[in-house]
Amino acid sequence: MPQRRSQLLCLLFFLSYAFTTIAEKSYYDILQVPKGAPDDQIKRAYRKLALKYHPDKNPGNEEANKKFAEINNAYEVLSDSEKREIYDRHGEQGLKQHAAGGGRGGGGINLQDIFSQFFGGGVSMEEEEKIVKGDNVIVELDASLEDLYMGGTMKVWRDKNILKPAPGKRSCNCRNEVHHRQIGPGMFQQMTEQICEKCPNVKYVREGFEVTIDIQKGMQDGEEVVFYEDGEPIIDGEPGDLKFRIRTAPHDVFKREGNDLHTTVTITLVQALVGFEKTIKHLDDHIVDIGSKGITNPKQVRKFKKEGMPLHLSNKKGDLYITFEVLFPTSLTEEQKTQVNAILG
C-alpha cells in the first residue's frame, strides 16, 4: 500500500509539472529560436526583438512594454549557461528554487543592464556582432487630413521578393577560422581559412499582397509606420523593414501647419460691418460656430482654441485659425453712394 501511494504521488507531481510547463510560454518561443539554439543565435534574436519592442520605439504601447520585459527576462536566462541548463531541465519552477537557494541570478533582472550591453553600454562596435540585413523599403504615404484627425486605416498593394526553396545546395554561413601550424622549433605560421556549410538552395520569387496601415490621430509629417522584417529579404541574413512615411495630403478646406489648422472664410461687406451668423463643418462633421456680432476687418484672423489637430499620443489639441476675406461689391449706384456717405461719412 505505501508503495502504491508513493507511485500515485509521483504521478501527481509529474502531471502538475507537465501542466505548468505547457501553460508557461517557453523562453525559446519568446525569443523565436529553437531549443538547441547556439549562444550567437540567441544573441541575434534578442537584439532584433529588443530593438523592435523597445519602449522608445513604442511610446504609450503597454503591450509592447510587456513584450519587451518578456524578451529581456528570456534572454537573462538563456544567455546564462547555468540558468539555461536549470531551465532546460526543470523549467521556471527550477529557476525559482535555484534563486531561493542562493544561486547566482537571484538578485532580480536589470533590464537596463541587459539592454545597454547591446546598445551603448560596455560593448564596442568591434565586439558587437554585425547582422547582415536586407534593404529597408521606404514608402511616402499621403494620408488624408480626416484620417490624421480621427484615426483610420489605409490599404496598399505591396510587391516584394520572397525566398523560396530551389533545387541543389549552396555554400552558407561562411566564416573565417584562424589556424596555427608549427613550421619549426618555437615557430608557428598563422593561416586563415574560410569555412562554409552546405544549405538548401533558395531563389527569389516576386509576390504581391495587401498591407493595412493604421493611421494614428495626430501623426506628424515624417513619422513612420514600421513593419519590421517586411522589407527586402537577403540570403543568410535578416530582411529589412518596410516603412510608410506619413505625409499630409492636400485638403479642399483646411491647411495643416503642425498641430494647427488654417482655413479662409469669405463674408459680404454688410456682414463685415454689422456682424453675421455662420458655422463651418469640421473634419469629423462637428459644427464650429464662427459668427460675429462686431465689425470684421478684411484679412482679419480669429483663433478658435482646441479646434485644431489632435496631438499624437495626447488628449490635447491645436487651434483653428480662420482668415476672413471681405467680398466688396463691384459697383454702386449714385443713390447707394449717397446712402453710404450719409451713414459713414
TrEMBL record:
Keyword vocabulary terms for this entry: Chaperone, Endoplasmic reticulum, Signal
Name used for this protein in its record: DnaJ protein ERDJ3B
A GO term for molecular function: unfolded protein binding
Single GO biological process annotation from the record: protein folding
Domain J span(s) in chain numbering: 26-91
GO cellular component: endoplasmic reticulum lumen
Cellular localization per UniProt: Endoplasmic reticulum
Signal sequence range: 1-23
Superkingdom, natural source: Eukaryota
InterPro entries: DnaJ-B11-like, DnaJ_C, DnaJ_domain, DnaJ_domain_CS, HSP40/DnaJ_pept-bd, J_dom_sf
